[in-house]
UniProtKB/TrEMBL annotation:
InterPro entries: KH_sf_prok-type (IPR009019), Ribosomal_S3_C_sf (IPR036419), Ribosomal_uS3_C (IPR001351), Ribosomal_uS3_CS (IPR018280), Ribosomal_uS3m_plant (IPR044954). It comes from Ostreococcus tauri (Marine green alga). The keyword Phosphoprotein does not apply. One of its GO terms (molecular function) is RNA binding. GO terms for biological process: translation. GO terms for cellular component: mitochondrion; ribonucleoprotein complex; ribosome. It holds the Pfam family Ribosomal_S3_C. This is Small ribosomal subunit protein uS3m. Its main location: mitochondrion.
């Protein structure tokens, strides 16, 4: 029985919980429909942003809707972007540029003093203009916009959700830096790699390397089905590492499914991850 049924549904009474928290005796169908609408809506929004790995927890009350969305950074799914985040090696390039092109700056001048000097120079150039206050406002507009970007988009998404669901909505996004904490994130990582036509064995070895770094993971199992790498006949390839006790209900097993849209058809991905108690 542990091999055929979903491990999450089988462990709801022991160490798993529902992805929604609400109760309705007469409007049960309406509550289920609204929950599916919220999950599909946020999944499509984050898919447009660049990441499909999202988990949504919905709390419904008669007059309000509270949503928690857990998502991963798109840089974790794109190796080209991940390489750009590596630390730079120390070089003498900037030291050479400063000594050759910026000799008029004193080496003992503090940055705060230099910043005040540049601001006052810009004010002197615009002293005859009537838009001096506007100039000061636009001086730090870009920095202020970057710091409040997440809050701005969160408020905008709350307004759109409130108008779409006809209910007062509160949305709280939670960004995770490690996608090994959930099987859903790992499944989306594998599907993203399959869409980029990476070899299956290379994907399995990469996932194994990442999951080995997490000390809370005891074992995992990944199954991919379909026309893998463009073969004529569909097949199923499974990779297993470590310990996965599907027949023990007290073990913490997370399960997720994902789809990869390729030129050879839809590929199915299933992931089981067993965590330590």
């Amino acid at each position: 029985m542990g091999q055929k049924i979903s491990p999450v549904a089988l462990r709801l009474q022991t160490n798993k919980s529902f992805q929604a928290s609400w109760y309705s005796q007469k409007l049960y169908a309406e509550g289920v429909h609204k929950q599916l609408q919220v999950q599909n809506f946020l999944h499509d929004v984050f898919h447009q942003v660049g990441t499909k790995a999202t988990k949504t927890h919905v709390v419904q009350t008669p007059g309000a809707l509270k949503i928690h969305t857990f998502f991963c950074s798109p840089r974790l799914f794109d190796q080209k972007l991940a390489k750009k985040t590596m630390s730079l090696k120390p070089t003498h390039f900037f030291q050479h540029q400063r000594t050759t092109q910026w000799q008029f700056l004193s080496n003992q001048m503090h940055w705060e003093t230099l910043k005040k000097k540049l601001v006052f120079q810009s004010l002197l150039r615009n002293n005859l203009q009537k838009s001096t206050t506007l100039h000061l406002t636009n001086l730090f507009e870009q920095t202020r916009h970057k710091t409040n970007a997440l809050k701005f988009y969160a408020n905008h998404l709350e307004a759109v959700s409130q108008q779409y669901f006809k209910t007062a909505t509160q949305w709280e996004p939670v960004k995770l830096q490690e996608f090994t904490k959930s099987a859903q994130f790992v499944a989306e990582y594998v599907s993203h790699a399959l869409e980029r036509q990476k070899p299956v064995k290379q994907i399995f070895s990469g996932v194994q390397t990442l999951l080995k770094k997490d000390p809370n993971v005891e074992g995992f199992k990944i199954s991919c089905s379909g026309r893998l790498q463009g073969v004529e006949m569909a097949k199923i390839e499974t990779f297993k590492f470590g310990k996965i006790s599907l027949h023990v209900f007290t073990s913490k097993v997370d399960y997720a499914e994902a789809r990869a849209l390729t030129t050879f058809g839809i590929l199915g991905v299933k992931v089981w991850i067993c965590y330590k108690d």
